[in-house]
Amino acid sequence: MKQSKTLIPTMREVPADAEVKSHQLLLRAGFIRQNASGVYSYLPLGKKMLRKVEDIVREEMDNAGAVELLMPALQQAELWQESGRWQTYGPELMRLKDRHSREFALGATHEEVITALVRDEVKSYKRLPLTLYQIQTKFRDEKRPRFGLLRGREFVMKDAYSFHSSQESLDEVYDRLFEAYSNVFRRCGLNFRAVIADSGAMGGKDTHEFMVLSDIGEDTIAYSDTSSYAANVEMAPVVTVYEKSTDAQKPLEKVSTPGSKTIESVASLLNVPAEQCIKTLVFKADDELVVVLARGDHEINDIKLKNLLNAGTVEMAAEQEASELFGAPFGSLGPVGLPSNVKIIADNAVQSIANIVCGANEDGWHYVNANVERDFNVHQYADLRFILEGDPSPDGHGTIQFAKGIEVGHIFKLGTRYSEAMNAVYLDENGRTQPMIMGCYGIGVSRIVAAIAEEFNDEKGFVWPANITPFDVHLIPVNVKEESQMAAADTLYDSLRQSGLSVLMDDRAERAGVKFADSDLIGLPIRVTAGKKASEGIVEIKVRKTGDVVEATIENVVNVIRELQASL
Predict the structure, then answer these.
(1) This prediction's pTM
(2) What confidence tens digit (pLDDT) does each residue in 374-390 have?
(3) Do residues 340 and 422 both lie within one domain?
């Protein structure tokens, strides 16, 4: 491709609204342009990167036995109503009506569409298992689009769905696609880990996220410092064994705590450690208010609470709802004196504390020396808190450390969550009707591009890995008005392409400094420069990653590039 004939609008200045390196460089190097918040155009270089990632994804999915199809982005509301997600998916689902006032959604995901399709076409166990996938634009109305392609409202995704007649069949395909995903991320050169995850709005159990380790990641990974254990911090169980306090119980006492609304301020005022205090929180689980207790230095994990209660949704109750229950505002809530019909759940750590400090359900007052069973009752104890660095690893090996990660893939064992809701059934070997067992597998294709961009760069621009670059070679005639340089460049352009190398030739009438700066910014692995020695049949070859420079005759350039590529 000749640079004068394409669209690569490079920028010298860093865009003011681009917070992270990948976003800055993708804009500056002319790979993308923003159309609206969280919505981008992929310019020619960006489209080539997308295609490179898509090709890798397709190869691995095909090798794993999946078959590609393409489903509509515009989805009927009736399908989402069948699954129950029209009401529960939330405001991220972009909804619209056609001219006949029929409701539709722009595809955020395709469980409903694929389930309906297979339900109508597959009737017998003989057609199972079946794994189908697509690569398509998805739409989610993110509350806060940020970091360029890492969190957008419109993005490219590969989503796959498998259908089975047995759990064993699902497990086999799940493991096969787990390995296919690992291959994709290895081939893209990413430093990633597969972590135990929560299924969220997708439903189902037994899920893994694939996280690229990065300081800008929005997810926290809890991992063992001595084993392969890794989990999303929301899913990591706490296995700490708490020793019950042997302190003698002291008389309950009500004390004044004016203006103290937080654990930190109360603990400081009363000169007690935060772990001697308990937080009293009120959650709304579906339509039921639930009181949850945690040690003062711990945070309640709402995912664990949701799973414990088997609730569809769990969220913090509004202050007015809590005040009606306790007769007091946030900051003064406590379990002492609550009606017996109020359900109180506590994290396991609470059980070990004696002489607790807690809210007195009166603004500006707290209790000291409150004790479980004597002063209040707990209906159930469970692991409800977030794991912390230094906690024992759940697998029994080492201690927990934290890292930040960018989610680039997620796989789920859905079970019969959608097939039962949407009546996707088949006839088994005995002629009996059975619900199909399903799996779901997603990869953020455009997010992978951003993750690669985030990892492979330096102070000058991108440093693309050789196997996933828009072009293999950047060919630069220094002065397009110099006949010998242009003749050498034209000869090389043809010979490099004939040898199977992809070439971007900078044939613009620009100064050499501009061309070299743009070349470093774009970041192709090999640069070939036809300069002053072109008249002697000699060009310069530079490796972007190392900065190494060699000279070669025009006839030998292909061989030299092949040798250099082998070492990258």
Answers:
(1) 0.84
(2) 999 999 999 999 999 99
(3) no
Helix (H) or strand (E) holding 303: helix 302-309
Range of the domain at 328: 253-382
The region that residue 238 occupies, defined by phi over 0 for left and psi between -120 and 50 for alpha, beta otherwise, is beta
Query: What phi-psi label fits residue 84: left (phi over 0), alpha (psi between -120 and 50 degrees) or beta?
Result: left
- 359 and 448, same domain (yes or no): no
Summarised one tens digit per residue, pLDDT across range 27-79 is 999 999 999 999 999 999 999 999 999 999 999 999 999 999 999 999 999 99
Burial of 279 (0-12, 13-18, 19+ CB in 10 A): buried
- Provide the CATH number for the domain around residue 522: 3.40.50.800
Q: Is residue 28 part of a domain?
A: no
User: Got the DSSP string for 91-157?
Assistant: TTS-EEE-TT--EEEE-S--HHHHHHHHHHH--BGGG-SEEEEEEEEEE---SS-BTGGGB-SEEEE
Q: 87 and 213 in one domain? A: yes
Do 425 and 492 belong to one domain?
Answer: no
119 and 180 in a single domain? The answer is yes
N-term to C-term CA, the chain? 23
263: enclosing H helix or E strand? helix 263-270
